[in-house]
Structures are given as structure tokens and as C-alpha cells.
Automatic annotation (TrEMBL):
PANTHER family: CHEMOTAXIS PROTEIN CHEV, CHEMOTAXIS SIGNAL TRANSDUCTION SYSTEM RESPONSE REGULATOR CHEV. This is Chemotaxis protein CheV. The keyword RNA-binding does not apply. GO terms for biological process: chemotaxis; phosphorelay signal transduction system. Keywords: Phosphoprotein. It comes from Marinobacter nauticus.
Amino acid sequence: MSSKAKQSQKLLLFRLFGSRLFGIGTLKIREILPFQRLTKLPHSHHAVIGTATFRGSAVPVIDMSAAVGYPALTREEQAKASIIVTDIQRQEIGFLVRSVQQIIETDWKSVMPPPKALGANAFITGLLDVDGDIIQLLDVELLLAKVYPESLDAQTVALTDVQSETLKSLNILLVDDSQVARKQLSDVLDSKDISYHVTANGDEALQVLLREHELGHPIDILVSDIEMPGLDGYELTFDIRDNASLQQPYIILHTSLNSEMSLSYANQVGANEALTKFDAEELLQAMLRGAAQAG
């Protein structure tokens, strides 16, 4: 490979409370709708304010302000608000936001990881400085896990003894900036007593790859998110494939994006597979395909 992998990232900026700006990648977005009459959902989380009709289907709508701990929008505020319809983790979800501002173009290298002092319950995966304004990138996976905690229930996957032992023999690296996604990945492997390394971003993952290679037990399988601060999944894949001195791992890009474009680009930069989160059976089967190739 002779040129640096580069894919610009477009972010939709919006407001939830006060003057703070938040952002979400446009590849997750299906459409932006003006507020409409919603159908109430009984026995739902307090942040789920009803369902909207989108292209003939009922889509649950979450008041994003309420979901992340800000005051819920009043009826008067809702009337002026917008619904961002997203396609995340194989489902359509609407997010009610106070106001939509603009779409900007950036790249993940410009995104800074959030300060660790924010703690485990911060709904932020990254920070971006745009002309002096600090944009907070929302951890939508954490938000959905808080609203739908049942989504975190461990998935039971049956493996044969041979399959389990095959995966246990591999050096596996997981990388994802979302704590929820890291937990889901870890739970799957922990349930099978499969050891692994785990990092929160691509820069750390690359350091682990280089270190393990120098120690003489290179990474066999890399499972990486795509959208991450600093070195994103595309650039991480490219950098690995562009390093002829590394023993090449089987790379599975694992993303909440359902976009065919993003999955196609994953293959272009050298990933072996690209999967949409989160299906434990599908992920383990992909790892087994990687094991077969490594063997």
C-alpha cells in the first residue's frame, strides 16, 4: 500500500441543553424529522417518549436530554425539536434533540479521547475542538444500554470443545472506544475462558500489536471498532497492512454502522471481515474463520 488510508468523517452537531454542542457520525443517521405526534409506549424507560412513524415503521423515540441526565424537553420545547432517526446495532432508533445545528467534516485523528476523570458513566467517546467550541461525541451504545439494559444480557453461544480450544490457543486483541462494546466483547470471550488483550483506542491497539510481535507471540486476531478517537479502525487496519515486518493478524472490523459504504471501505483498507454489532455467534464464527486462516 502506498498511500495513507483516509476517510473524512462527517458529524451532525446538535444541542441538548444550554449552549453545549454534541455530535454524532452521519453514517449512523437515516433522516432528520421535525417533531411529530408520538404514540405512547406503556411500561417503557422514562426517556422513551413514544414511537414515530418512519417509512411505514414504528420507531422508538428517546429524549436524548433525559437519557443522558439533563432535564427532559417540555411539551413546548418538543414542538420545536427534531428527531434524528438512526440505524445503530441493527435497529432504527429516533433521538429527540433540542435543535440541529450543522454538519461538519473532520477526521478521527482530530478527535481527542475524553478525560478519564469523567468516569465510567460519562456518555462521551471523544472531544473535538471546532473554532474554539468543544464538541462532545456521544457514546450512543452506552446511552442505549442505559435505556435498554436487557441489551447487555450475555448471549449464549454453543461451541464444540475443539472450537473452544482453537480460540484459546490464539492471541486475540479487542479494541473499542465504547465501554459498553468492550464489555459485550469481553463477556463473550470470558464465558468461554478465552484470554485476550483489550484497549480503548487504535493508538493503544497498535502499541499492543508491536509489543506482542517483539515478544514473539504476535496477535492472531484483531477485532476493532471503526469510529474511534485518534487512530480509527480504518487507519489502524491500513497501518498494520502497510507494516511488512509485522506478522499479519486476521482483522475483523466490528461496528455499530449498518452502512454498506463503511463495510465496503473496510475491505478496501485490508480488513478480512466487517461485521455489524452485536451478534456473539457471528463474531465467534468470524474468529474461527480467522483461526482457520492462521492455521
